[in-house]
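Example (one chain per record):
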Amino acid sequence: YYDIQDRVNFRGHVGASGDIWAVNHVLIISSRIESGPMVLAEAMLSGRPVVATPVGMVREWVQDRVNGFVAEASLPQALNAALDACWHEREQWAAMGQAATLTARQRIVSNPAKEFLDLLLSSSNASVN
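Predicted structure:
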């Protein structure tokens, strides 16, 4: 309908997320409602910058023009402006990808069960005192 088949590929299911990032350079998240998309962390850990709308935890992970691009709003025009900025700064994608990896490594909890247990225990100890 839009005659974009020579520019867009829908590849279907991929078993390992690393396979996706071996052939793709930027993650685009155009969500209007989202909490914390797992694909955001996957892309960033794979050294890929992100273009996203400012929903959920996106602003906690993506620093505009540092490790990706954050649209001003969850509107098509705002996402278009962020995509334009991304394209114009494509020479910076590798450096942004490195920054994305550092950000993701700092934010990912290596042992979430232990962290949750520690939080529960500290809460429990605080309420006893």
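Caption: The chain is about 50% helix and 5% strand.
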